[in-house]
Specification:
Number of helices: 5
CATH architecture: Sandwich
Bound molecules: 2-oxoglutaric acid
Structural class: alpha+beta
Number of strands: 14
Strand content: 25-35%
Largest sheet: 6 strands, antiparallel
Length: 271
């Protein structure tokens, strides 16, 4: 879809060990420098379809709505990296933007994804693709290395309007020395485990910051439909011998999610 980086590769055994020990891998090349402009145009085109009063951070399920988004998530180099962590058979069930305009004040509180997700077994990998360069000045995602091994942290509800999510782990539970900023060049990805503590501070720069997240789980995952009735999967790679979840339609054109949770059948489609 976009020009691939000349250095795409598979994960090294050191990176696989790092994922297991520290819960993340970062700085993986996917798209070339030439592709960055295309990636920006892609983002501008998709985001411009949202009505002005809808915050892109409050929309999800883009992979079920937009062929453009779906195709990006099927980039073979991205799936190769994911396969190296969770094996050859896996599904996609989430696709979302985490975007911060310069000085918009938005913050992603410290949290563990698995806390929000009624999935078992909990073994999801998130791909975070940098659409723009991201660093500490523009609010790069930060992780607490090794925290995925420490069990569930206490999350408290916080309705502060600057927070992108409303469940937060207080800073006093966090080992500050273990915080790592996942600074990425546009076109690179990081991968993180669903139990890893992570979050991000405000974008204090004059540069936009945006990541595309893609959520993948091995095919043996089962979503609790009593909690997430809209949970639907698309086979991303391999075969699904388990068939434990409803399937999501594969988008053949462009629709735009206007909220967090939708069934694929509910999108207003142009196909
Ligand atoms: O982009 C961010 O700052 C946070 C992303 C996030 O929370 C996630 O990928 O689960």
């Amino acid at each position: 879809m976009f020009e691939l980086h000349s250095k795409i590769r598979r994960l090294t055994s050191k990176e696989k060990q790092q994922y297991s020990k520290e819960g993340y891998v970062t700085g993986l090349p996917v798209f070339s420098e030439n592709a960055v402009k295309d990636l920006h145009n892609w983002y501008n085109e998709l985001s411009s379809k949202l009505p002005n009063d809808i915050d892109i951070n409050k929309t999800n399920m883009w992979h079920k709505a937009s062929k453009n988004f779906y195709d990006l998530c099927r980039t073979s180099a991205i799936l190769d990296y994911v396969e190296d962590l969770i094996g050859p058979n896996f599904v996609q069930w989430g696709g979302q933007f985490f975007s911060k305009e310069p000085k918009d004040g938005s913050v992603v509180p410290w949290h563990q994804d698995a806390q929000y997700w009624p999935l078992s077994p909990a073994n999801a990998v998130t791909v975070w693709l940098a659409v723009f360069d991201t660093d500490e000045d523009n609010g790069a995602m930060k992780v607490v290395s090794g925290s995925h091994k420490l069990g569930k942290f206490i999350h408290k509800k916080n309705d502060d309007e600057n927070l992108v999510l409303d469940q937060e782990v207080s800073f006093d539970q966090i080992d500050e020395d273990k915080i790592v900023s996942l600074n990425l060049k546009a076109g690179e990805i990081s991968l993180h485990n669903d139990a890893l503590l992570h979050g991000s501070e405000a974008n204090n720069s004059n540069r936009r910051r945006c990541g595309v997240t893609m959520r993948f789980s091995p095919t043996n995952v089962k979503g609790d439909l009593t909690v997430w009735p809209f949970f639907e999967t698309q086979l991303a790679r391999g075969v699904d011998d388990f068939r434990l979840n409803p399937s999501a339609e594969i988008p053949r054109g462009e629709a735009t999610p206007l909220k967090m949770f939708s069934f694929s059948k509910d999108f207003v489609k142009d196909w």
